[in-house]
Design goal:
Strand content: under 5%
Oligomer: single chain
Largest sheet: none
Radius of gyration: 17 Å
Number of strands: 0
Order of helices and strands: HHHHHH
Shape: globular
Structural class: mainly alpha
């Protein structure tokens, strides 16, 4: 079994453990029509039906990528190094374009230049 298949199987198991049968929807490779419809209902007056549907698609199409990020935060110890590399690669090659497109529709974005990273400074302001 390659890292992709292993990751997909592991994500399904984690989300079924957490949310029962609803967990299958989070990791399924399918169009989330119910999510798109909900977003369309909220934004149609503001953007029109077609653009609101497009926003819904862009906010939902990468749900399995988001599921990986959340699962990794909850259970980092359950993933192999290869599964993590695969999950990060899938996220970075898929989600950003959808996020950027949703930002363009809603005009809700700020592109920032992050300061140089200093791992010694990370978390100093946390309780």
């Amino acid at each position: 079994m390659d890292a992709y298949d292993s990751l997909e199987k592991k994500l399904k198991a984690i989300y079924v453990e957490i949310a029962g049968d609803k967990g299958k929807a989070v990791t399924a490779n399918r169009i989330a029509k119910n999510v798109i419809a909900r977003i369309k209902a909220i934004y149609s007056k503001e953007y029109g039906d077609r653009t609101a549907s497009t926003l819904g698609m862009h906010m939902s199409d990468w749900h399995s990528n988001a599921a990986f990020i959340v699962a990794m935060h909850l259970f980092p110890e359950r993933f192999t190094d290869e599964e993590i590399k695969t999950g990060i690669g899938l996220f970075l090659t898929h989600a950003p374009n959808h996020i950027r497109a949703a930002c363009q529709i809603t005009q809700q974005y700020v592109w920032e230049n992050f300061p140089d990273s200093d791992p010694d400074e990370w978390g100093k302001n946390e309780p």
